[in-house]
Structure formats: C-alpha cells, structure tokens
Amino acid sequence: MATAKPVALYPTYAELKDLRFGDYPDLKRFLESGESWWMNHWLWGQEFLNYTGRNKSEHTYTRFRNETERFLLWVFLVKETPLDRLRKADILEYADFCWQPPVSWVCLANHEKFVFNNGYFSQNPAWAPYKLKRPKNTASDKNADKNPDKKKYRPSQQTLTATFTGIIAFYKYLMNEEYLYGNPAQIAKADCRHFIRDAQVKEIRRLTEAQWQYVFDVAHSLADEDPLHERSLFVICALKTLFLRISELSERKTWSPVMSHFWQDSDGNWWLKIYGKGRKLRDTTVPTSFIEYLKRYRAYRGLSPLPSVGENHPIVEKIRGQGGMTSRQLTRIVQQVFDLAYEKMRSAEGEDNARKLKEASTHWLRHTGASMEVERGRALKDLSEDLGHASMATTDTVYVQTENRVRAKSGKGREVS
C-alpha cells in the first residue's frame, strides 16, 4: 500500500485544540476505514501535539506536527503495524521510506492541509506530506523547470535530523504517559545509513560584504525615490543590524512588536525587547548607527523622532489596514529587495558574484550581521546574548565559519608547480 494517497491528519494548533470530528468528515472517514488501533494512535498524536502547542513555540508545533503526521501515515498505510510492535529495524525502514517517498506523497509547493467548504473542513487534494524544494528563481529566470521530477526528492541532512528529532520526541512523550515502554527511534538514529558523517567545512548562509552593500544600496535608493519604500529600508536594516529572525519582527497571535519595545537605559544606551525562539524574552543592543534609520522610518510615519514609553504603534506597520505585518508579508518585502539587488549586481559584476543573492532568504541577513560582528572582533559572549542563543557553542559556529574564510584565503596562494 506504499503508493496509497495519504491524507492530512492534524490541522493548526488553534484548530486542533477544539477539533470535533463532525467538522472534519474526511478525516473521520479515513480513521474509521482502517484498523481499530488507528483512532487510538491518532489520539496519541493529538495529545502529544496539544502538549507541544501549549509548551513550545508555534514553529516547534508545526515542525513536530509534520513529522508526527508523516510517521503515523507510514504506520497506517505502509507498515500497517501499531507503534508498540515497531522495533529499531522498522524505524530504519521508515528512514529509507523518507529518503525516497512515492511520488503520490510528494507535492511541489506549500498547501493548506484542509479547506473550509460548506461548513466543513475537507482534505485539500493538492496537499502531500513531502515537498520537493525547487531552486529559488527570480523573474528573469525564463528556463526555470516548471514540472520537476518528484522522483528526485531527497531530504537534506537537516531534514533527516528533524525527522528523527520529531519521532524521538513523540516516543518520549508516549513513554512518559506510559502508553509505550521503549523508544526504538532513539537507538535507530545512530545506524541510519542516510546520515553522512564528514569533516566538511560548514558554511553559514550569509551574504558577502559586497552582496550586502548591493542589498543596502538598492533598499536605500528605493526609499529615496519613493517614500513607500521607507519600510523596506527599515526592515532590511533591522534584520541585519539587530540580528532579528523574521518572526521576531512580525505580528503574532501571542506577541505584537510595538515601538515602545525600543527603550533607553539610564546610561543612554538603546535596546530592543524581543520575543524570540522558545517563547523567551531578550533585550538586544541597538547600535548608534541604527538610530538614524529608526528616526527616518518614524518620520515617514509621522511619529516623533524616537519611541516613548507606552507607545503602542507597531514596529512595522501595514500600508493598508491596521496592525503589524505577518512573517509572510515581511518576507515578500525582503525578497523584492534581494531580487533587485541580484539583477543589479549580476549586470555590474557577473553571475558568479551575484549568484548567492538569488538563493538568499531573510535569515541570511541575521547570519550576515552576526558574521560581520565576529570579523569586527566583538566578544562572542556579547554577540551570543544579542542573538538569543541558549549556548555560546551555537554562536561559535559563526566564529568557526569566519576562521574557515581566513583558511581559504591563505590557501589560495598555493602553486601547482
């Protein structure tokens, strides 16, 4: 049954909390069509995911939901064996399945799992558990592959690691609740043949100084030509200079970034209060150079030069409507600047120098800012706290990457003869 068309098992956390099967007739039919233990396993997954949604971040919920869903679908439709009978060899078999899933389990874009229709949540036929990631193309790429081969899907090492992390966490929860008494995923991970153990140079995805300069110059020019782009300039500068994740600048259900989150201490230093990963609050330093762009953006919005205590204006305001911008809206703003910077740099300096701008995501700006701080000689402890890293070891990966750049530069001078 490995080619059976899978169905979505779990909606968003907000919907899962109050899920009634009467609102999800397709899901109810699917669970009742299988073995008697299917419904029990689905309820275990629901319990685990509700726990994750309550105690972790929204991002963690989504990640664990996807992994739990894929695993249970494989258990139901492929292995046809309940969890308490799975052993280490079965988990390794699942890893093989994830390495090359059937094409009916692969889609080419992100799709909603359920669609609301006539008062009910129906399965979205376009959805599939795995997504074939296509190269990011700009508008000028006329030869982009419109119909890639789904058989070419292969998970990255990071994706494979996330798969095991999700399954191990699911098993741990079931063990803690005394539903199961073993965790075969924990012992299977070490023997998974798809993991590559190597000593390769780990590259932090970042922009070079030249690429960053093109991004900054394009954003600056857009704002100078049209005040509507003041927002783009501010967002680009904030993500890079304050080391922000895109979610930390966006409007969320549990947090609204407002101007009063910029604050000044008794010594005149500026800080930004951030609601970050793992539902943790942190304060990051705001350098003097950034204040100019904060003032510029506030002037465009008709606000006083600097924020005041209790000011509840969104940090990044929607052009139309009220409130702050979502992560998706902010990503579109950044992508527009990246695309224009790529075209400009490609025309001036060639495809080889500009190529990374075509691959870049919003998170590259955070890495770029952090890497430049390491190169400037800033103490890793201070940088780690600004980044919101739980451990300096995470920050140290940026340092190692910087050392590799020095190593590569010294190695360029070797002669063949």
General description of the model:
The chain folds into two domains: 13-138 and 152-191, Tyrosine recombinase, N-terminal domain (DNA polymerase, domain 1); 209-411, hpI Integrase, Chain A. It has 15 helices and seven strands. The protein has helices spanning 13-17, 25-33, 37-55, 58-79, 88-99, 157-176, 184-188, 209-225, 230-241, 288-300, 327-349, 351-359, 363-376, 380-387, 392-411; strands spanning 106-107, 114-117, 120-123, 130-131, 262-264, 270-275, 281-286. The longest helix is centred in the C-terminal third of the chain and has 23 residues, at 327-349. It is globular, with a radius of gyration of 24 Å. The mean pLDDT is 89.
Counting copies of identical and different chains, the oligomeric state is single chain
Provide a count of the helices.
Answer: 15
Number of DSSP strand runs = 7
Mean pLDDT: 89
CATH structural fold name of the largest domain: hpI Integrase, Chain A
How is this structure best summarized?
The protein is built from 15 helices and 7 strands. It is mainly α and 417 residues long. Strand 5 (262-264) and strand 6 (270-275) form a beta hairpin.
Give the SSE layout:
Layout: H1 13-17, H2 25-33, H3 37-55, H4 58-79, H5 88-99, E1 106-107, E2 114-117, E3 120-123, E4 130-131, H6 157-176, H7 184-188, H8 209-225, H9 230-241, E5 262-264, E6 270-275, E7 281-286, H10 288-300, H11 327-349, H12 351-359, H13 363-376, H14 380-387, H15 392-411
Parallel strand pairs: 1-4
Antiparallel strand pairs: 2-3, 5-6, 6-7
Helix pairs in contact: 3-4, 4-6, 8-9, 8-11, 9-10, 9-13, 11-12, 13-15, 14-15
